[in-house]
């Protein structure tokens, strides 16, 4: 779908990974054992790329802010940028930026990752990059990117952008006591339940959400197959998820992010933002990797009657 010029653009910041997605596993691998997958796909990945691809498919101009390698693996997947139709003006090509490889092992409704990061996540001249494009919003696809570039939110605000952040699981960072302070200024926080529990130290979803709602103007908490919860101040709204055939849950959270951001920037109410987000996340799990399912049915037609929203007040 072509982007609509009336809708402001979104910059998606973060590393671009080369995902090797193994699906149809009979069980997860164990040390000393070998497991055979029935399927394998090589696709571009990473939260920035996946969210940008879904935003572009919704008709909103998406600009990648990242670095990308020049190694054979990266070059082999480069054509997927053109298929996604993304604006690549802010992508820096450098030898030390790759290969950034993630091995994805999808089993049932869950998956495990083995990743290698290479070089810096973003170009060094961030201020020049952000000032050189017209965009209304910056989406930071993983906390690691913000940890590497702690001035990123401040720079985005200087250029008049609102900011969203998906913390994304990182065992070395997710329990950091300074995480919330570094996130100061983020308008929209987009964690999943496991991340929210780790960040707040509360296993109960409601308690974790209450703490996050004290730090961020808007929180959209992803609950996987259970849907999602919206929080703004003391307002809570929950929505369920439709039952779909799951192929691979990789990137479902990033697709969710794209749906929510798209509706949120259009000024839609909370229920519509959640509905759009859950619909895209539900579509994403029906294909391997984070973007293969973009060729499936229009997400607006996928939520159906299984999605139920309700207001909840603490």
From TrEMBL:
InterPro entries for the chain: Carboh/pur_kinase_PfkB_CS (IPR002173), PfkB_dom (IPR011611), Ribokinase-like (IPR029056)
Highest taxon above the source species: Bacteria
PROSITE patterns: PFKB_KINASES_2
Presence of the UniProt keyword Lipid biosynthesis in the record: no
All residue ranges annotated as the Carbohydrate kinase PfkB domain in the record: 35-293
CDD domains named in the record: KdgK
Example of a GO MF term: kinase activity
Keywords carried by this UniProt record: Kinase, Receptor, Transferase
A Pfam family: PfkB
Entries under PANTHER family matching the protein: RIBOKINASE (PTHR10584:SF166), SUGAR KINASE (PTHR10584)
Protein name: Sugar kinase
Species classification: Bacteria, Pseudomonadati, Pseudomonadota, Alphaproteobacteria, Hyphomicrobiales
